[in-house]
Amino acid sequence: MSLDVSPALLEKAERGEVDDAEFVACVQESLPYAWEVITTVIADLKGSSEGFADHETPPPSEAERGQLLRALASDAIRGGLERHFGVKLAFQNCHRVGAFRLAEVDSDRYRAFISARGQLLNQSPELRDC
Asked: Is the pTM of this model over 0.85?
């Protein structure tokens, strides 16, 4: 299961739409490692004069890797996080998370990060099973 959804939040979802704040709070509680990585890269982005920041440290265990994969592979979760933080998130190799200011989404750096070339250049033998 991707998220630990409280009975109250599940009931609300069954009745209709859930707002982003409630959804993002559920993500934060359910996926603490992913939340830590994403908030760290967002903080790095805010402290940078560039429109980009990334996190390249592999997770300490498969459980943490799973959290990161669940957070960034889900359109709903990734979209909720992007709206919450006002950024565009990008993902490579099961652990490399990039955060881009929205104005940078059409930049050369963003296109290079999400390109097939960027993915191939970010490969290494120790990451083959990630």
From this structure: yes
